[in-house]
Amino acid sequence: MAPDAQGWDEMSDASGDFLSHVAETRAVEWNATASPYPRNSSIPRLFEEQARQTPVARALIGAEGELSYQELNLFANGIAGELRRLGVQPGDTVALCADRSFGLIAAILAIVKCGGAYVPLHPGYPHERLAGILKDCAPAVLMAEGRFRAVFPAETFLSLEDVQSRVFADVENPESSAGPEDLAYVMYTSGSTGEPKGVAIMHRGVLRLVRGASYAHFGSDEIFLQLAPLSFDASTFEIWGSLLNGGTLVIPPPAPFSLEAVADLVERYAVTTLWLTAGLFHRMVEGPLPRLKMLRQVLAGGDVLSPPHVRRAVEALPDCQFINGYGPTESTTFTCCYAVPQSEPPAGNIPIGRPIANTRVYVVDELGNLCAPGLVGELHIAGDGLARGYWNRPELTAEKFIASPFPDIEPGRVYRSGDLGRHLPDGNLEFLGRRDRQVKIRGYRIELEEIESALARHPSVAHAAVAVREEVSGDKRLVAYVVPQQSESELSDIEHTTASEHVGQWRMVYDALYARAAAQEAPDLDFVGWTSSYSDEPIPTAEMREWVDATVGRIRSLAPGRVLEIGCGTGLLLLRIA
Hints:
Elements: H1 5-30, H2 43-53, E1 58-62, E2 65-68, H3 69-85, E3 93-97, H4 102-113, E4 117-120, H5 127-137, E5 141-144, E6 157-159, H6 160-165, E7 183-189, E8 197-202, H7 203-210, E9 223-225, H8 234-243, E10 248-251, H9 259-269, E11 273-277, H10 278-286, E12 297-301, H11 307-316, E13 321-326, E14 336-339, E15 354-355, E16 359-364, E17 377-383, E18 389-390, H12 394-400, E19 401-403, E20 413-423, E21 429-434, E22 438-441, E23 444-447, H13 448-456, E24 461-470, E25 476-484, H14 488-515, H15 541-557, H16 574-577
Parallel strand pairs: 1-10, 3-4, 3-5, 5-6, 9-10, 11-12, 12-13
Antiparallel strand pairs: 1-2, 7-8, 8-18, 13-14, 14-15, 16-17, 17-20, 19-20, 20-21, 22-23, 24-25
Helix pairs in contact: 3-4, 7-8, 10-11
C-alpha cells in the first residue's frame, strides 16, 4: 500500500535529516586542515629571522646581479628609515608603482617593517584607475619610479630611485609593531559598480599560505620565478613563498614576456617553482614546454584548466608535479589545491582539490544549508587566510564576509565566494562556475558590470553589454556590444555606408575558411573554421578529436534527459549525442 500524505512527509523529513547528517559529517572530515605554523608572527619578523639564520644565502637574483638575505635586509632597513622620516606610521598605507626590480622587493619589505600595508599599483593601469585607487586608499606616501613623477600628487611622491641612492648598508632592523592581524597589503580588484575594491589582507593570511603548508614544497632549495605583477595576488605566493623559507627569488627584467622569454629565464636560473595563469599554462603546453624540464613543481590557476593540456603537460614533464590552484584574493591567493596524479591524470574536469592547511571550504545551498556530496552550492571559505574585508567598504564587507550559517562546526566568519562547486566522492572539490557575472581573463578577476558602466558613461553610447567569448583552445576574450546614442537618420547614414563593407568582410571570412574546405570523412568530423587564436593556424585534427571526445563524455556522464540546445554550426557535439 502506498504511504499517505503524512507518510510521505515523514519519509521526506527522514531523508532530509540523513542528507544533513552526511553533509555535516563530511564537512567536518574534509575540513580537518589544522596544521602548526607561526600564526602569531609577522612577515618582517620571519624574514629577519631568516636573514639571521642564512645571512649569505642568495635571496634575489636577476639581471641586476644578486643580493644575499643580509644585503636585502639592510637594503629594506634603509628604505624603512626613510619612510619613517616621512611620517609613515603603523597602520598606514603606502602605494607602490614600479616594475619588477630588487628595489621593489626591498620597498615592500620596508613598508611592512614600518607596520604599514603596501598597495600595489600596476604601471600599465590607466591614469583614471590609478587616481581612483589613490583617492580610496589615501596613502601616507606614494613610492614610484621617477618616470611617474608627473602623474602622481607631488606632496606624497617618493622616487624609488632617489630613496635607493640614499640607503646605507649599516642600518639596524627597525622596531616593528606589526602583528598577525595587522594589514600586510591592500590589493585592488575589479568591482561591479565600476569602481575597483581594495581587499585588505593580514599578515596571518600570508603566513598561513607559505608556512606549514603541504600543497607545494617550500624550502631553501627552491628557486621561484617572480612572474606575476605585484598587483596580482599570485605575487604573494612567489615572493613570500621564497623569502620566508630561505629560497631564491628570480627577478626578471621589466620587459613584456613571451613564452620563449619565460623558458629562457627558467633555463638560465634553474628555476624549480613556477606559477602560471591558466591561459599562460595552456599556451606554454602548446609552445616551449619541453624546455622546462628542470622544474619540480608548476602551479596553474586563475581559471579552469583544460584536461587535454594537463595530460600533455604530465606526459612531457613526468618529473614535475602539476598543481591546480584555486582561490579568490579574499582568501589570500590559494584556498584549495589539487596535485595532478602523475600516473593517471583525470580524464574529465580537473578538480580544484581540497582546502590547504588552516583553511576550510563549505558547499552551501541557497537556504544556507550544507550540501551533501555531489550537490551543487556556493563555496563558503573560512580559516586563517580570510581578508579583514574591503577597504572603506563596510557594507560590501558585511555582505560578503558573514557570520557562519552553521556555527556548531564553523564558529567564525565565512566568505561567500560567489563560486559554484560540489564535493566529489573522494572529498575533492569541483569548480562549476559563478553565481554572478564575474569572469576570469588570464587570471585577472573582472566584473563585466564594471566595463559596461565605463562604456555607458561615454556620451555616444546609449546601452552597452559585455560578454566573454571562449575559443576552443580555452582562451577567453571580452566582447562588448553597444547601442549608439544617435538619431534614426544618423543610424540610417551609418548603415548605408557600412553595409557593403560588412558584406565584403564576411565574404572574405567565408572564402578563407569554408569555400576552400576539403571534404571531411564524416559530418561529425567537420573541423573547418576551428582556428587557434594564437597562431591563426587550423587546430590539429588529433587535438580537436580529443576535445570533442572529452566534451561528449562529460555531457553523457551527466545523463541528460533531453537536449534543448547543444552545439552549433556543423554540430560536432549534437551529432554524437542526439
